[in-house]
Write a structure and sequence with these properties.
It comes from Nocardia mangyaensis. With 390 residues, this protein is α/β, with parallel strands linked by helices. 31% of the residues lie in helices and 15% in strands.
């Protein structure tokens, strides 16, 4: 899932110097790295009394830089457990030890392609789960979650095509007019939104995408799902049988307003976690600001943890750099309408509910009547002083 560009600066405190060697914890030198002594965070940033001893974060997919700020909280000495698709290390803020551990778990195939809300209700040990707005709406009846911040302001989801095969396509509307297939993976909710908007026809949706490039390479006559922080780079540089540019349009450019990579807790655990979230959410905001200013450390960590897990698809340093800059310079990370990084526009959330609610109910989801933005998101724990500039 990924794309690139230059890097912006941010308007919170200057970046703290990260400890040398934080980016790598390869098995050969694990003992040496684990022995690194970390400076303690100040008392007001100590989490042991308020948070679980291990803060568990469930990703939507494999480790990638679109979850970058979470990896910015991972301190040196981290260990990769490939058997269980997880990474564990000290939870740090500004490189300082908060007194608890951070465990990051891969999603997607690692959890049998379950949605994150579903996994959060199956596994009580999960503290935070990343999700898209529409998945939170779909889960609201039976597995309600509440977003406490978001890593991305806008979604990098896109539709891509071969400009040589379909030279007349300038965007998604042209794909719809063509009547040609749109190949997406099973379980995606936005295709129904595209249909409801009248942008594409229902018979165009082909939910058989298996994340392999082989079908597109063999017959690029159709449109395919992708992410602006990934496929434009991988198809041009890493899919050797293709090795040329693709064209694409972001869903957000045709009116899709859903938030991506929201950071959620189970609704029934919000009160219990409130003391933890008051301290932890500003740390996530700070990590997001630091990632926006300079993603290189996070890029290195993500590339390293993927390299240590043979179950995961390779994730090159070049792709990591492309993906981070695509998110940053593409404006997919940034302040919301209130000027706060990681915040929510509640009117926008309500529009998402109003659009997706009827679509999801038609598909059989238990979306409660009268669902509102405040059921899905809260700004209670955000530090309004944290923002980015540029």
């Amino acid at each position: 899932m990924k794309k690139p560009l230059p890097v912006r600066r941010f308007g919170v405190a200057a970046l703290a110097v990260l400890l040398a060697g934080a980016a790598s914890a390869c098995s050969d030198d694990a003992a040496e790295t684990a022995a690194v002594a970390l400076e303690s965070a100040p008392a007001e940033q100590q989490l042991a009394a308020d948070c679980p001893g291990t803060v568990v974060v469930q990703l939507q997919w494999a480790p990638e830089t679109d979850s970058g700020p979470i990896f910015g909280l991972l301190g040196p000495g981290y260990q990769v457990d490939a058997d269980n698709n997880k990474i564990t290390g000290p939870l740090v803020t500004d490189g300082k030890d908060t007194g608890v551990q951070l465990e990051i778990r891969a999603g997607g195939p690692a959890i049998g392609f379950q949605t994150v809300p579903s996994q959060m209700y199956v596994d009580q040990s999960i503290t935070l789960g990343l999700a898209h707005s529409e998945h939170a709406i779909a889960a609201a009846g039976q597995q309600p979650i509440v977003a406490v911040t978001t890593l991305l302001r806008n979604s990098p989801q896109m539709l891509m095509w071969d400009p040589s095969t379909n030279p007349g396509w300038q965007g998604i509307a042209d794909i719809g007019k063509s009547g040609k297939p749109i190949v997406v993976s099973k379980g995606q909710l936005y295709p129904d939104w595209l249909v409801a908007r009248g942008l594409v026809k229902p018979e165009q949706i082909d939910a058989s995408y298996d994340n392999s490039p082989s079908r597109f390479v063999t017959d690029p006559s159709f449109a395919q799902q992708g992410f602006a922080n990934a496929e434009p780079f991988t198809y041009e540089n890493e899919v050797r049988a293709w090795n040329k540019p693709v064209s694409y349009q972001l869903l957000k450019d045709v009116g899709y307003e859903g938030y991506a990579r929201t950071v959620n807790v189970r609704a029934d655990k919000l009160d219990e976690l409130r003391p933890c979230l008051k301290k932890l959410v500003p740390m996530i905001q700070t990590a997001t600001a630091q990632f926006t200013a300079d993603p290189s450390h996070v890029n290195d960590v993500v590339v390293d943890v993927v390299s240590q897990n043979p179950k995961l698809s390779p994730y090159s340093a070049e792709l990591a750099a492309f993906g981070s800059t695509a998110l940053i310079d593409g404006g997919l990370i940034g302040n919301d309408t209130d000027g706060v990084l990681g915040s929510f526009d509640e009117a926008r959330v309500q529009r998402i509910i109003d659009e997706f609610g009827p679509i999801l109910r038609t598909g059989g989801a238990d979306v409660p009547a009268g669902l509102t933005a405040t059921d899905l998101v809260t700004k209670e724990f955000l530090d309004p002083a944290i923002s980015v500039t540029g």
